[in-house]
Amino acid sequence: MEPGTDDFLPPPECPVFEPSWAEFRDPLGYIAKIRPIAEKSGICKIRPPADWQPPFAVEVDNFKFTPRIQRLNELEAQTRVKLNYLDQIAKFWEIQGSSLKIPNVERKILDLYSLSKIVMEEGGYEAICKDRRWAQVAQRLNYPPGKNIGSLLRSHYERIIYPYEVFQSGANLVPEPTEEDIEKNPELKKLQIYGAGPKMMGLGLVAKDKTSRKKGLFLTPLGKEGVIYPSTVTMKEELSGNWKVMSALPKEDLSNSLEPCTKMTMRLRKNQSNTQFIDSYVCRMCSRGDEDDKLLLCDVCDDNYHIFCLLPPLPEIPRGVWRCPKCIMAECKRPLEAFGFEQATQEYTLQSFGEMADSFKVDYFNVPVHMVPTELVEKEFWRLVSSIEEDVTVEYGADIHSKEFGSGFPVSSSKGNLSPEEEEYANSGWNLNVMPVLDQSVLCHINADISGMKVPWLYVGMVFSAFCWHIEDHWSYSINYLHWGEPKTWYGVPSLAAEHLEEVMKRLTPELFDSQPDLLHQLVTLMNPNTLMSHGVPVVRTNQCAGEFVITFPRAYHSGFNQGYNFAEAVNFCTADWLPAGRQCIEHYRRLRRYCVFSHEELICKMAAFPEKLDLNLAVAVYKEMFIMVQEERRLRKSLLDKGITEAEREAFELLPDDERQCIKCKTTCFLSALACYDCPDGLVCLSHINDLCKCSSSRQYLRYRYTLDELPAMLHKLKVRAESFDTWANKVRMALEVEDGRKRSLEELRALESEARERRFPNSELLQRLTNCLNEAEACVSQVLGLVSGQEVRIETPQLTLTELRVLLEQMGSLPCAMRQMGVVKDFLQQVEDYQAEAREALASLPASLGQLQSLLERGQQLGVEVPEAHQLQQQVEQARWLDEVKQALDPSAQRGSLVIMQRLLVTGAKVASSPSVDKARAELQELLTIAERWEEKAHFCLEARQKHPPATLEAIIREAENIPVHLPNIQALKEALTKAQAWIADVDEIQNGDHYPCLDDLEGLVAVGRDLPVGLEELRQLELQVLTAHSWREKASKMFLKKNSCYTLLEVLCPRADTGSDRTKRSRWMEKEMGLYKSDAELLGLSAKDLRDPGSVIMAFKEGEQKEKEGILQLRHTNSSKLSPSTTAASATSICVCGQVPAGVGALQCDLCQEWFHGRCVSVPRLFSSPRPSATSSPLLAWWEWDTKFLCPLCMRSRRPRLETILALLVALQRLPVRLPEGEALQCLTERAIWWQGRAREALASKDVTDLLERLAELRQQLQLEPTPKDPHTCSSAAVSDRLRKGNGKEMTKVQGLLENRDSVSSPEKVAAGYDSHKTDLEQLSSVLPQLIGPVLELPEATRAPLEELMLEGDLLEVTLDENHSIWQLLQAGQPPDLARIRTLLELEKPEHQGSQIRGQVLEKRQRRQRKVDLGRKSERIVQEELESKKARSSQIKPEEGQDEEEFQEGTDCENIFMTPPAERNPILKGNQNNLQENDSTSTTPFHSLTPLVHLSYPEQQEL
After folding, report:
1. What is the pLDDT of residues 490-547, one digit of tens each?
2. 121 vs 77, 114, 118, 128, 148, CA distance in Å?
3. Fewer CB atoms inside 10 A, N or C side of the chain?
4. DSSP strand pairing (477-485 vs 466-470)
5. CB within 8 A of 119, min separation 6: which ones?
6. Cβ of 193: how many Cβ atoms within 10 Å?
7. Whole-model pTM?
C-alpha cells in the first residue's frame, strides 16, 4: 500500500529573492544575475519592492470564461494506473455478467492493483501458494501481522484477480496449430480446408434465434440455480426461467417446437440418433464433442467449450450472455482512450466563479477560507489525488487568452486613456506583456503573437485546482505573477534532473507511457513529490502569494495547485543563455516527432540578419549558435551531394505556413533547407531524414534552400564583428585608464568612450564600471573646483571644504588618468588659504583684539569657502565678545529694564559660548540676578493666586523691595496694578458711604463684584456683601408676597402702575411679548432710566404720572371692549382674542369686570362656587345671591397675589431698616401710599348717609332671612316671597349690617346649601334648578350714589392690594342690579369636572374609613371575649357599657356621616343662634332652594398662572 497522506513531507523551499529598486529596474538583467543560484532549483520566487503594486486592469464585468473539469484522483499517474486497472477488471467481470464490488480489509478498500503487482513481483500465484508466502504479501501491503490477513488476501485474489490474470496471460486460450501440426494431423488439415463446424442447415444445426435472446426467452435447467461466484462478485440477474436440454430435431420438428433455442442454449437431445449432428460440435480445448450437456457456445464467435475445460473451470452452465476466453481477451485488451481534461458546460464571471470557489472551500473544510492553513490544504490535496475511494472534482480556468479577455496589467494602447500611474506600470519591464519583447529577449525577434509565449495567458483557480508536471514549450523560461487571491503552491525540478524525472515516471507507470509516449507534454499527469524524491529526483516547493513572481528556468519541470480562489497571469521569455537549450529542445522534439511552436533556425537567421540591433551578450550567443548551425548545414548538404541530388531552388520558407514546411518524418519546421520530390509534391523532409521522403529516384528529388552556403558565412562574419566590437573598445578603455602610452587622455576622450559603449549597448562589464567611476570622480572634482572659484553667495551656501580636503582634492586631481585644466586654479586657491591661515594665527597671538577686527577677519575666512582650523578660534572669540556686550547692555542701569525672558535667553546663549574668565564671571552674575528675580516673581505670583488675600500694606512692602531689581517682572507689575485698583475701590466705597442718600443696590453689587476680583484683602468688602445679602433677602420676601407662581412679571413691574393700559396693542400681543421677553417692563414704560431709579424724587413723580396714565388707559380700554358683542350672541368678535390666541366664542366665555375683555373660562383663573366651608342646614336661608362672589378679573388686570395692606405695612417696616436703596422698595412705598389714600376715600364714601342707609336695608334683609323658618317642602317656597316683603316694607324693615367685613368667613355658598338636600341629586343639579327663581335687584341705587361707587370700584381694582372696602362696595353694586345668571351658569359648568373628581375621592376615602372601623370593631370584640373568660363577675358588670358603647359607636358613625353635611356651629358665628333648631329637626330634613347663599371669593390657588 502507499504511505498515508499524513506522511507527506513538504520538499525544501526554493530560493526567494527580494531585489532593490535599482536591481528591479532591469528585469532580465536581474534574472541573469540570480540564474547561477536559482537554476539549480529549477524555480525561484521574486518579491518585488513593497511600493510596486500594479493596478488590476481586467474588466471584471465583461470577463467570462469556461473552466476545465479536473477529477483529482485521475491526475496522479500511479492513481490513474490503479483506476485503469480497476476499470479493466470491472469490465472483465461485467462482460461475464457480474458486477465488481471491491472488498474492505482492515477497514480499508483493498488495493487490487497493488495486490496483483506484488503477487507478480513475488513469482506469481502458484509460487506464493506453494511457498505459503501470503503473509509476506500482506506485510508488503502494510497490513499488520498476526491477523491471518494473508489467507484473506489469497481468497480475494483467487476469486477476483486470478481469473482476470489467467485471461490476461492467455493460458485459457486454445493454442493455434502450427504448419507442422497441420501436416501431421489429417483432421486439422481438413479443418484448414473446410473450417470448423457444419456449413449447412441440413446437418441438423439449430439456427441462432437472436430475437429470442433479445426478448429474454432463455431456458435454464430445471431446479438449478446460477453459478456460485465469490461474495465479492455480484452476478447480474439478466434472465429468468429454467434451462432445458433439447435433443436435435429435424428441421420441420424444430420449426414447430414450442421451445426456441439460441446459441447459448443449443444442446443435443439425449435420444438424438444423428451422429453427424453430434460430431459437428467439439470443444475448442479438448477437441471432443461428448458430454454435450456441458458444452457452451460463445455468443460472439460461436466457438464451443466444455465448462470443465475452461480455466478456471465453471461449476455449471452460466446464465445470460456468455463469451469465450478469446473474445473476453479481445475486449479487455482494447486500448484506452487518451486521457485529457474536458471543458465545463457552465460559463462563469469572476464573481460567480469566486462565489462557487469560496463556497466549495468553506463546505469542504468547515472554516472560513482564509483560516485554512496552507499545510493542511497541501496534505489534503496529495491525499485526494492518491485516493481511489474519493472522487473530488474541481474546476480550473486555465490558459485563458489575455488578447481576447484582457491582461491583468495595464496595457498601452492608441486610446491613451491611462493615468500616469497606469502608464508607468504599462511600460514596466515586469509587465508580462512587455517582458517577452524587451531588447534582451529573443522572442522580440518573432513577429507572430504566439499565445502563451509572447502573449500572456490568464489563470483563475480554486482550491485543489492543479497544473501537472510539464516543461515549457521550446524549454523556454516562464514567469508567473499572482495578481490577487489565495496562494499558489509550486513544485520544481532543475533541468539537470529532467531526464531522471521522466525515467522515474515511466518506470513507475509504464502502462500510461505505453499508450501515450508524449504523456508529459500533455500537462495532464501528476506524481507525488515524495515519490519522486524517494527515487532520487530533487524537488523544491514554494507558496506564491499575491503580488509575487515565480520564475521557471529552461527544461525545469514544474507543477502545483491553488490554495483557493485566485487570479494569475503567465508568459514565456527567452534570453541569450537560452539559445543552446533551445537548439537541444529542437533535437529532442525531432526524436519525439513533436511539432515545433516556431522555427529555431528561422529565429537565429533573423537575428543574424540585423546584428547591429542585438544586445552584445545576445550577439555573442547568436554568433555561437549560428556557427554551429552553419557547420551542420554544410555537413547535411554534402550528404545530399553524396546521394547524387544536384537539383536545387531557393525557397522563402518564412512565407509558407508551418504545416507546409514540416518534415513528414520528425515534424520539424524547416527553414534553412528541405528535400522535396517533383513526383510527390505534398511532402518534404529535413536533411536529417533524406531517406524517408519517398521511393522515387534521386534524380526526381531536389533541394529547397533559404540561403546559399556563401551567404551564411557573410551573415556569420557580421555577427562576429558585432560580437568582437566590444574587445576593440575594451582595449581602448584599458589603455586610457592605465596610461600605458604615458599620455593622459582628456576628459572629452573618456566621455566619448563611454558614449560609444552606450550607443553600441555593450554589457555592463567591470571595465565599463571603471570608466564610469573615473568620469564620475573627475566630474566631482570639477564641480568642487567650480564651487570654490564661483561667486561669494554661492560659496557661502555650499558646504565648506577643510584645508586638508582641499589638499586631498589637489592630489586626487593629479592622480586621475585624465588631464584636468582646473589644477592650476586649485593650486592658486590653496596658496590664498595658506596666507589667510598665517594672518589668523598672528591675530590670535595678539589678543585682546577689537571685536571689529576679529569680525572682519572671520568674514574673510568665510568668503574663502575653506574651513581653516584658526577660523574656529576666531569664531569663539567673536561670540564671546558679542555676548559680553549684550550682557553689559542688559544690566546697564540707564537702559530700559529687560524682561525675564531676555535674561534667560542670555543665560542660555552664554552656556553655548566658549568658556573664559570674563564669560564665567558675567554668567555667574547673570545667574544670581535671574535667581533673585524669579524668587520675587514667585512671591508676587503667590500673592496674586492665593486664596487668602493679603492686605494692601503687605503688597506695598513687596512692591517697594522688588523695585530695586533691574529686571522687568510681570507678576510684580500685575501686583502693582491690583494694588492701584484696590486703593481706587476703597475711595469709591468711602464716597458712597458718606453720601447724602443711602447707596443703591446696583452700585453696591458692582462694587462687590469688583472687590471680589481683586487679589487684595479688603475690610470693607465683607460689610458691603452683608448689605447686599440683606437687600436680596428683602426682595425675595416681597417677591414671594406679591408674585404668583411662575409669574412672567418682575417685582418692580407688579408694583408699578400700568402706563400702557390704553395702548392700541391687544392683550394677546402684550401677553405673548411678556412670555417671550419682548415686552417692556412697567418701569421702562414709566420713562425711568437707570439714573432716575437712583433718585427718589424722580421715582415718585414718575409713579404719580403712571397712576394717571393707568386710569385713563383702563377707561379707554373699558370703553373699547364694552362696544364688543357677547360671544354667546355672536360667532366671534373682530377684536376679542383670548390669551390662548383664539376667539372666545359660545358658552364658557367670561368677561373681565375691570377691562371688559372676553376670555375662555378654561384658559384663566375663575371664582370657585364649591370651595367655602358648609354651614348647617338651617342657616342657609340667611344669605342671598348678591353675596355670592362671582367677581372675575383677567390675568392682565390682576398681575399679582394682591396681599392685604397690613402685610405690606410690615414689609415696609423691614425696608426702613435697610441701609440700601432698592427701586422695588420705593415703588412699594408709592403703592402703599396710593392704597391708603384710596382706602380713606372708600371709607368716606361708605360712611355717607345714602350708602349707610343702603347697608342697613341689606342687613335687615339678611336678618329677616335668618329668622324665617325652613319649610318642609323645598319646592313650595321661593325667594319671591322675600322680594315681595322687601317691596312692601319699602326697605324700612331692613336692619343695619354691622361688622360685615369681619363676618366674611361666615358667608355660605350654594354648595353648603346643597349639602342638606336630597342625596339622590347632586349639588350642581340642585343649584341649576334654583337659578331661574332668583330675582333682583334687591336695592335701588340712585345714579348719584352709583357713579362714585363705580369709580372707586375701578380705582380699587387697579390696586395690586387687597382691601376690605373694595369688597363692600362690590356687594352694594351687586345688590343694586339683577343677578348675572349667565356668569353663574358658566362658573358652574367650569367647576363641574373638578367637583365630580372631588366626590369620587371623597367616596373612596369614606370606604377606607369604614373598613378601618370594622377592623377596629373586630379587635374590640376579641378583647371583650377574653375579658369574659377571666371572670363571670366582670362579664355581668360590662353588659351596660356594651350597650352604651354600641349607642356611642352608632352616634359616632352618624356624626362621621354628617360631618360632610354640617360642620360644627362654632366655625360659623352666624349659625350659633340656630343650633337648637338643628338638633330638633330630623336628620333627613332638607333646606329650601331659595335659601342658597353666595360663595366667598376664592380664586384658584396659583392655577393657570399666565
Report:
1. 999 999 999 999 999 888 888 777 766 666 766 678 889 999 999 999 999 999 999 9
2. 20, 10, 5, 10, 21
3. N
4. unpaired
5. 125, 128, 137, 157, 161
6. 7
7. 0.49
